[in-house]
Amino acid sequence: MTDTALTLRAFHDLFPDENAARAWFERARWPDGPICPVCGCVDHACWLRTIRRWQCTACHRQFSVTAGTPMHRTHLPMLTWAQAIYQIVASSKGISAVKLSEMLGVSYQTAWHLGHRIRAMMAEDSPLLSNIVEIDKTHAGAPPRKRAKPERADDDCDPPPPNPEGRGTKRPLLLVAAERGGEVATKVIPTHGKAAVAEALDGVLSADARAMTDGLPAYSHLGAERTHLSVNQSQREYARTDSATGHRVESFSGFLGRAVVGAFHFVSPKHLGRYAGEAAFRWNRKADACLERMALLVRGGVGRTLPYRFLTGTA
Question: Structurally, how many domains does the chain consist of?
């Protein structure tokens, strides 16, 4: 077992019951004591045992550890939330809603909403990338299914057209910027045009970053701001690497692709940003201990909410 891992037995020792789970969430979110979300007072609140809420002694407003997060107004026990966060954070590529519902004993709809709320908590501000930064677009989501062939060779019909690839596919686009040996940043883009790429890279590259891309014209503006290197894929030059620079952008794209194909099977354009954010969180925090990643996730959810009606598009 590595130092970053948290075994299932160790998890159950840390979270034996609902009270222990709630206490851990409070320590993770408020290391210096409860913070009132209304007036901002720190560690000036009393615990109301009968209704299981905190009450600020300054403004007398009541609040809980889930207030102002994707867990807001949840009907699930905090122990269930802890179990779900552990399973998602500890997995190498993520867990589908079907498997999450089986492991937690909840309905598929509950597990699906739970998974997306946890992904919303995983979302982080784009890191500022420096040194050599590889930039590339990838067609996210599962690849299209193969089209059926005629049942008999003598069938009097045209053969099925080939599955579209590259720019001909309708799969959603994701722009990935990866620092050599460092963190990655992702952004869903509507097209591979210059304006969309420039907007996605705004605030991502440091002043001294050297950009490495392919020959797509949308990257041409990078040369006016910084050193811009490109590879010529028509000459079978796909990447420039050396032993000291570590990962390439293709590594993360493959990492995300295996998660989609192996765990989720399908990712819609509407939710792609959260799935990409989950993969980036797991990639950027892989050296951290599992319990540290869980605590970071809880703190990252402050100020975010994700109602079910927003996910389903009914409101």
Answer: 1
